[in-house]
Amino acid sequence: MECVFGLVGNDFAVVAADTSAVHSILVHKSNEDKIMILDSHKLIAASGESGDRVQFTEYIQKNVALYQFRNGIPLTTAAAANFTRGELATALRKNPYFVNILLAGYDKETGPSLYYIDYIATLHKVDKGAFGYGSYFSLAMMDRHYHSGMTVEEAIDLVDKCIVEIRSRLVVAPPNFVIKIVDKDGAKEYAWRESVKDAAVASA
Amino acid sequence: MSIFEYNGSALVAMVGKNCFAIASDRRLGVQLQTIATDFQRISKIHDRLFLGLSGLATDAQTLYQRLVFRHKLYQLREERDMKPETFANLVSAILYEKRFGPYFCQPVIAGLGDEDKPFICTMDSIGAKELAKDFVVAGTASESLYGACESMFKQDMEPEDLFETVSQALLSSVDRDCLSGWGGHVYVVTPTEVKERILKGRMD
């Protein structure tokens, strides 16, 4: 029931993910951040098996940082996406990672971009993408309302439309979402959309 | 659903008078859901050799990267481009290497050989070559494509006629297949030029 989706705007890319960590019928927590800041200008929104998700995205993050240390310049978004695909493809027939990824980034030369990377290492550059059961609703909303060159306000409005649709139409809809954005000034958290807050822990 | 039908694809290559055409659909799907409508299935190996890969998209991408690597090595060693017949043998060998854990792809190879004689061939996922003098087909729409090509094909067509024939055969076949379509990509290659055209068909 994990929902991850994203789209590209006029000079930014935005991704949103649900924040529930679920095991069978139990919700462990509802503020799990599934969008990792890969480096200053890249975001990786991942969904899938939780152990693989954390392990694989951290592995990619550390290798991207290593490249920057060794070479003095950061990887482009396309290069990071292809590296990620390569790692998934190599592991596919040995010890596959069950992680679906939307990689959003901003490069000075080429602007914003979004890459769809399947768990079986299918890579495609897209303007809008989504994973999970929520994709049936979010892709349909984006197909209707998306146009190229959207402003931040328009894009967030569309993201909110998708979240409303998921909340009202998906049977076990995740209650909370996090939205992160990447533009020329870097990757950052934009907002949380919470409808259920974890109970505060009683003090000792 | 078979693993060959996971992403959906349609490929056709046809021989004309001193020219050939290779065409593909543009849909990238995940079973019944459409992810993208601008997926490239046909890649250029060199100016007179094109490779189309149908079947599982991740294996098509991996296989393409391996083949480009091998061709570049060949170019460095031999100081010339590979002949289409040689390339077909290379693809066949690489596929058979994985005989008991194959790449789930069906390649279509089209090129201009010695004296500008067009060459087309296809093979199954373990490298069994099928050389043809008229046309070859691959993908989820292959059965429809066989019928369409058989009835529309004529010997020694000029490039413009060949383009029309290949386009009509492709579009009419993918319209009967729910897993392929969303337009077409046609390359018509003569000894002097390569013409790339995008077809707009039924966008469903």
TrEMBL record, chain A:
Source superkingdom: Eukaryota
PROSITE patterns for the chain: PROTEASOME_BETA_1, PROTEASOME_BETA_2
Family annotation (SUPFAM superfamilies): N-terminal nucleophile aminohydrolases (Ntn hydrolases)
Pfam families, A to Z: Proteasome
Subcellular location, principal: cytoplasm
Annotated localization: Cytoplasm; Nucleus
Keyword tags: Cytoplasm, Nucleus, Proteasome
Role this protein plays: Component of the proteasome, a multicatalytic proteinase complex which is characterized by its ability to cleave peptides with Arg, Phe, Tyr, Leu, and Glu adjacent to the leaving group at neutral or slightly basic pH. The proteasome has an ATP-dependent proteolytic activity.
Subunit structure: Component of the 20S core complex of the 26S proteasome. The 26S proteasome is composed of a core protease (CP), known as the 20S proteasome, capped at one or both ends by the 19S regulatory particle (RP/PA700). The 20S proteasome core is composed of 28 subunits that are arranged in four stacked rings, resulting in a barrel-shaped structure. The two end rings are each formed by seven alpha subunits, and the two central rings are each formed by seven beta subunits. The catalytic chamber with the active sites is on the inside of the barrel. Component of the proteasome complex.
Family according to the record: Belongs to the peptidase T1B family.
Descriptive protein name: Proteasome subunit beta
Species this chain originates from: Hibiscus sabdariffa (roselle)
Automatic annotation (TrEMBL), chain B:
Protein's cellular compartments: Cytoplasm; Nucleus
Taxonomic superkingdom: Eukaryota
Residue spans crossing the bilayer: none
Keyword annotations of the record: Cytoplasm, Nucleus, Proteasome
SUPFAM superfamilies: N-terminal nucleophile aminohydrolases (Ntn hydrolases)
Gene3D superfamilies (alphabetical): Glutamine Phosphoribosylpyrophosphate, subunit 1, domain 1 (3.60.20.10)
Listed CDD domains: proteasome_beta_type_3
PROSITE patterns reported for this sequence: PROTEASOME_BETA_1, PROTEASOME_BETA_2
Alphabetical list of InterPro entries matching this protein: Ntn_hydrolases_N, Proteasome_beta_3, Proteasome_bsu_CS, Proteasome_sua/b, Proteasome_suB-type
Name of a matching Pfam family: Proteasome
SUBUNIT field: Component of the 20S core complex of the 26S proteasome. The 26S proteasome is composed of a core protease (CP), known as the 20S proteasome, capped at one or both ends by the 19S regulatory particle (RP/PA700). The 20S proteasome core is composed of 28 subunits that are arranged in four stacked rings, resulting in a barrel-shaped structure. The two end rings are each formed by seven alpha subunits, and the two central rings are each formed by seven beta subunits. The catalytic chamber with the active sites is on the inside of the barrel. Component of the proteasome complex.
Function: Component of the proteasome, a multicatalytic proteinase complex which is characterized by its ability to cleave peptides with Arg, Phe, Tyr, Leu, and Glu adjacent to the leaving group at neutral or slightly basic pH. The proteasome has an ATP-dependent proteolytic activity.
Predominant subcellular localization, coarse grouping: cytoplasm
Family: Belongs to the peptidase T1B family.
Taxonomic classification: Eukaryota, Viridiplantae, Streptophyta, Embryophyta, Tracheophyta
Protein's UniProt name: Proteasome subunit beta
This protein's record includes keyword Nucleus: yes
